[in-house]
């Protein structure tokens, strides 16, 4: 029986179809090197970022349908990256190729690798099952049913939908109610963005800004609450607050009562401190409605838009 690649015996997951395809005889170094080079050329040839086919109409949109469209685009991006990671792991295990961490088309990868290894698979016959150690699945904590550490929570799909409804989607840089240049889904334009009022960005850039801003806001919430456990909806409400007003405005200096409530573990008082109604020194109706929605999110796990009532 031909020896099997030791790379396929290692790991903690069942073998994928790609891995099973690489169960093959030991090859000479020149042949192995040639095969590695071919795989690397394949990877280089499909080094193409994933682009969303979705497009948004011009102007500002707060509709549920538009928000759902953006959320679906984000979900597709996440799934695409997950599939690429699986494909890269299979290539590294089989060939020891160091794949570069950029987006690649998984379908093209599978077809290319399948064609390259068809001969070796046919020569060895059907692949044999490899004995693997038993896998113990991690215990997943459901933050919708019990409070958990903020490090274990990230933005929910329901929150993303609500956030996009509140912020709207703008592909042209504009000034928000406080006068700051803004674009996308409430993205504050930074000097490194190289944008000014009136400039237009692509839909994929809207998604890039949103993902980056959500990551920063999630980290800010974790710093804000420390070890205080939260439900998913409580985390989402605080996330909306930070995304809306910025981390600086929820600091001990700017929001002492909010921080005191967090330090005391007083959830009712935290809910009382989620209302921010002013921008540039003036009360804004939109911020009042958003604060009402945020409070309902924290206290009642309701993500509904008060404007629809």
UniProtKB/TrEMBL annotation:
The name this protein goes by in its record? Lysozyme
Cross-referenced SUPFAM superfamilies, in alphabetical order? Answer: Lysozyme-like (SSF53955)
Stated family? Belongs to the glycosyl hydrolase 24 family.
GO process terms (BP): cell wall macromolecule catabolic process; defense response to bacterium; killing of cells of another organism; peptidoglycan catabolic process
Q: Which Pfam families match?
A: Phage_lysozyme
Where do Basic and acidic residues bias regions lie? 26-38
Keyword presence, Hydrolase: yes
Stretches the record annotates as Disordered: 1-65
CDD domains according to UniProt: lyz_endolysin_autolysin (cd00737)
Which species expresses this protein natively? Alteriqipengyuania halimionae
Q: Which controlled-vocabulary keywords does the entry list?
A: Antimicrobial, Bacteriolytic enzyme, Glycosidase, Host cytoplasm, Hydrolase
Q: What is its EC number?
A: 3.2.1.17
Domain of life, per the record?
Bacteria
Q: Does the keyword Hydrolase apply?
A: yes
Q: Which GO terms describe its molecular function?
A: lysozyme activity
Family matches, as InterPro entries = Bacteriophage_GH24, Endolysin_autolysin, Endolysin_T4_type, Glyco_hydro_24, Lysozyme-like_dom_sf, Lysozyme_dom_sf
Q: Which reaction does it catalyse?
A: Hydrolysis of (1->4)-beta-linkages between N-acetylmuramic acid and N-acetyl-D-glucosamine residues in a peptidoglycan and between N-acetyl-D-glucosamine residues in chitodextrins
